[in-house]
Design brief:
Helix 2 packs across helix 3, helix 3 crosses helix 4 and helix 3 crosses helix 5. About 55% of the residues lie in helices and about 0% in strands.
């Protein structure tokens, strides 16, 4: 059976290797500039947007900020050159949803929950024995 992290609805691993952090959760200079522009260069917001961006790029879906492991947050914070005490912040649920929408747009991800459920249901029916 496939591990939970490799299913159609991927989740974060409990332990994330240094190699994986470097390879998948390190923001580029372009990513940092984009996040600074979208958050008016407020460090906590920059960090929030970057961790959502890097997590979504790795997982293929946009996770909620509170679901992102501290190891990823710490790596992104360090690699983006943010102060060690900076914590990811979104002033409200509405702000976080704006960040999530910006990430979807940047990565070209679609958010069509009803359509996704239909595709999943069709795939399960096709795969199920008659």
């Amino acid at each position: 059976m496939a591990s939970l992290e490799r299913t159609a609805y991927p989740r974060f691993k409990r332990l994330i290797s240094e190699r994986e952090l470097r390879e998948f959760f390190t923001p580029s200079a372009e990513d940092v500039a984009w996040a600074r522009e979208h958050t008016h260069d407020r460090p906590g917001r920059v960090l929030a947007l970057l961790v959502i961006l890097k997590s979504a790029a790795r997982m293929g879906r946009v996770p909620r900020l509170r679901a992102i492991p501290e190891a990823i947050v710490a790596n992104v914070r360090d690699q983006a050159g943010l102060h060690a005490e900076t914590v990811p912040e979104a002033d409200s649920e509405r702000s976080e949803e704006r960040y999530r929408s910006a990430v979807r747009e940047r990565l070209g991800l679609r958010h069509r929950l009803g359509e996704a459920r239909g595709v999943a249901e069709a795939a399960m029916r096709a795969a199920a024995p008659p």
